[in-house]
Inverse folding.
């Protein structure tokens, strides 16, 4: 059971991927989170990723692909993975297909969360993230119960350095230039399901679960 969540920065991929992964007992693999962790640990990968992330650019494919392949070869990934923020280029999508095939697996579905550009800019402006568990919040639409503190783990909330207005605009340009091509790629393979990403977090989650129903959702 392998699922890709596709969508622009701010579409709600991270929030929804975390919830659906928990519900379906899948590994939540978020490449942005892995790069931020590497930065916090001060590794070479972290330093390299930082220079691209600050500019709103994509980290080179070879680096990103090898990080993902390493993660999916771990035993816990055998039960299935939700890919959040990966793939972001055709080369990454092809590498993922190849790796899954080599492991005797397949990509089952791609959920494309669609949100208008105006809404994306609004959402990214007020976003806060937990430093410990990466849970996302929003000043207006999903504020934490206690200002500055994560509801789940009590961790400190911070604003991502790449959520500044100028970098957000660059990230959206990058998305429309590179990642949006994947909508075509996955439509052609018959794996893409489009889900409206506007509205309440629970409503969107419900739409995603409906889109997955029948295919994977087994009664627990
Ligand atoms: P995200 O947390 O998914 O918004 O990602 C934050 C940043 O990490 C992006 O703007 C990119 O610089 C980098 N990044 C995350 N995922 C990828 C990927 N699949 N390919 C290349 N760069 C990525």
């Amino acid at each position: 059971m392998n699922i890709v969540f596709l969508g622009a920065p701010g579409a709600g991929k991270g929030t929804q991927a975390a919830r659906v992964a928990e519900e379906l007992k899948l590994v939540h693999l978020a490449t942005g989170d892995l790069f931020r962790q590497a930065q916090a640990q001060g590794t070479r990968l972290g330093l390299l990723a930082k220079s691209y992330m600050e500019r709103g650019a994509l980290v080179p494919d070879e680096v990103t692909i090898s990080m993902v392949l390493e993660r999916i070869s771990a035993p816990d990934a055998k039960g299935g993975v939700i890919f959040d923020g990966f793939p972001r280029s055709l080369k990454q999508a092809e590498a993922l297909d190849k790796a899954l095939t080599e492991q005797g697996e397949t990509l089952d579905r791609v959920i494309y969360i669609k949100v208008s550009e105006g809404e994306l800019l609004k959402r990214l402006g007020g976003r806060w993230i937990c430093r410990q568990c990466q849970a996302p919040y929003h000043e207006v639409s999903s504020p934490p119960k206690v200002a500055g503190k994560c509801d789940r783990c009590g961790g400190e909330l911070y604003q991502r350095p790449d959520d500044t207005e100028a970098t957000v605009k660059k990230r959206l340009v990058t998305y429309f230039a590179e990642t949006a091509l994947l909508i075509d790629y996955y439509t052609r393979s018959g794996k893409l399901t489009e889900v409206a990403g506007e509205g309440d977090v629970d409503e969107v989650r419900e739409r995603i679960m409906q889109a997955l129903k029948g295919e994977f959702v087994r009664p627990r």
Residues 9, 31-32, 35, 52-53, 56-59, 64, 85-86, 88, 92, 162, 171 surround adenosine monophosphate (CB under 6 Å). Residues 31 and 64 are 8 Å apart (CA to CA). The chain has a mean pLDDT of 92.
